[in-house]
Amino acid sequence: MVSDKERRIALFIDFENLVTNTGISPSTFDLQPAMDRLLERGKVVFRRAYCDWSRFREATRRLHDFGVELIDVPPSTRAGKNGADMRLVIDALELCYAREHIDTFAIASGDSDFCPLAYKLRENNRMLIGLGVKGATSPLFVKACDEFVYLKPPTTTKAAARRESPRKTSGERAAREIPPIAREVVAGLLARATGPLNPSLIKETIVRKEPDFDEREAGFSTFSRLLQEMERQGLLKRQQLNGRQWYVLPPDAAGSEKETGRGEDRNDAPSDAQRRESD
What we know:
The chain is built from twelve helices and eight strands. It is an alpha/beta fold.
């Protein structure tokens, strides 16, 4: 997988799965948050959504506004079942083999039936990003992805923001809980390191082990802020080299604490490298 250039992303949406018993209704479905996350990683060159659109006419206008091609898959049985997932799989594999410049696939669904597709795409050196609603996504599919982004129902997002904002302002300086996976990865990497570690390596390792990791769920606006808190708790030491890039060292490593402390204030506005790794 290539990481040193802009990615070319193909987005496949299993629409019925995203709006059935997930808290997201067809009329309020908003693709913008998912598109924002994908556009941070590269260019979305292919966009398709699959379902029986006669059942979700109210959603078609919103999807058209994002340039999504709607693939209509009418019911194929009396019970109303359709072959949307099978059609999606076939199209994704065809694109994988026919368009080598597309190096990243995004599958918007929480269905574990897409696990075999995920394995095949990764086998063909494609990065796989999953998108789904947290309470309605199979853990098996999450683990099958290289990275997983949770979509939040609009009402849940607003209510959570109201509940969390007072806590953030009142205890902003208090020690916050470090996600266990972050502790585990940092400790393991530092134990084997022979020199300073790039923060992006730490973030990539965490995401490989836990594809749905998001530091914002633990209350940190960026990954750099999480590392700052870990330094305050004595789990690591950060050091700025050549006045630019920050690196991570073991907590007992020799270094100028004065330099690290002085640079922390400047680091409140992350560098380009930190912005890339914090997302």
